[in-house]
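Hi again,

Forgot to attach this to my earlier email, sorry! This is the prediction with adenosine monophosphate bound. I've pasted everything inline since the attachment limit keeps bouncing my files.
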Amino acid sequence: MTRRYLIVGPPGVGKGTQADLIATEFGIPHVSTGAMLREHVARGTELGIKAKSTMDAGNLVPDDLVVAMLAERIAMDDARDGFILDGFPRNLAQANALDDLLAGGLDLVIALSVSDEEVLRRITGRRSCANGHVYHVTDNPPKVAGICDVDGFELFQRSDDTDEVVTNRLAVYRASTAPLLDYYARIVADVDGLGTVEQVRSRVFEVIGS
Ligand code: AMP
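Structure tokens for the complex follow:
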């Protein structure tokens, strides 16, 4: 049995948080193209340099670059029996590319949703450390303000988590990513993303099954 999952939804809906929980529960890798791209930017690689301004504007990095990066990741040994994709595919061209890479396709698509107002509230309060541990100033604050509980690193706001960029990211989501819900209609499970991490977690695990 494979566990090839995708978690999809607007920015700030909680994809990364829930994907981490799924990855831990089933011992499968959490594959976030956004996190991988941010790492390239931080390391100053050729890909990072190419992607940075597009990411800062909240637009999509060109498909060929992201598909190549993703293909390499899911070909790794730890992804043989499954993975939880977060942030990929982002449009129909990427979904087609993924179909070409995967014999048998995905097993389940978890579609998380919240209102646009909630997206803005969550994203503008989001803070993370250099290792990618994520907090929210009121919903999930660190023990010491501004400091990561796990590694003591300083917390910062993602450069694309400002009001203006989030508004564009929502528009990009609606235009390019939301059509994937039709594309995957046969295997989509809708999950209400409003509530605590624990409440959403139990809804997510209910649709995954045992
Ligand atoms: P995320 O962390 O998923 O919100 O991604 C942050 C940013 O990385 C996005 O706004 C895009 O600029 C870029 N990005 C992440 N995943 C993709 C993808 N699959 N295709 C194109 N761009 C992506």
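The pocket of adenosine monophosphate is lined by residues 11, 33-34, 37, 54-55, 58-61, 66, 87-88, 90, 94, 160, 169 (CB under 6 Å). The chain has a mean pLDDT of 95.

That should be everything now.

G.
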